[in-house]
């Protein structure tokens, strides 16, 4: 008799232990809380997904900002900060929005009208793809570690700030 799969919630993240059966290996599944996309959609007035949501959000590096946000948007800068912080929390479970969330956080002090549009683009993406499940399969012990590093010197066209990323891979689950 096979034991059933086990599920547990950790800070509203669903962690599932899948037992090996019928050709499927033993695995652990990790899923972030999909309600964050809906909450963010309500914050900016987007409750439904749009056609644009199936494409990944464009990076800020392709956009050059020419005008500042209107007075109303400048007064609601705390709302922009709140949304950026929620995106930052969500990016721990959703690496597909990590870079875009970082780019939004760069203009948190003085958000522009284009920054608000960028936030809406990311939220449309989250509404169109509310779930992302990480699957970690059981594997043998690995003796090899692979490290990758990437640096983009002065990559932001507005602030000329640099971005650096380091990824360390152990085994088959991470590379």
Put the structure in a nutshell.
With 175 residues, this protein is an alpha+beta fold. 31% of the residues lie in helices and 21% in strands. The chain is flat and about 55 Å long.
Overall description:
It contains 5 helices and 6 strands; from the N terminus they run βββαααααβββ. The two termini are 34 Å apart. The chain is flat and about 55 Å long. The protein is of the alpha+beta class. It has a 4-stranded antiparallel β-sheet, with no helix packed on it. Strands 5-6 form a two-stranded antiparallel sheet. The longest helix is centred in the last third of the chain and has 16 residues, at 113-128. It has 2 domains: 6-138, no CATH class; 144-175, no CATH class.
Ends distance: 34 Å
Q: Uncertain regions: pLDDT < 50 for 5+ in a row? A: 49-54, 59-71
Average pLDDT reading:
76
Share of residues in helices:
25-40%
| SS strand fraction | 15-25%
Widest β-sheet, arrangement of strands: 1-2-3-4
- Cα shape: flat
Please tell me how large the radius of gyration is.
Answer: 19 Å
Number of structural units classed as domains: 2
Number of helices: 5
N-to-C series of helices and strands: EEEHHHHHEEE
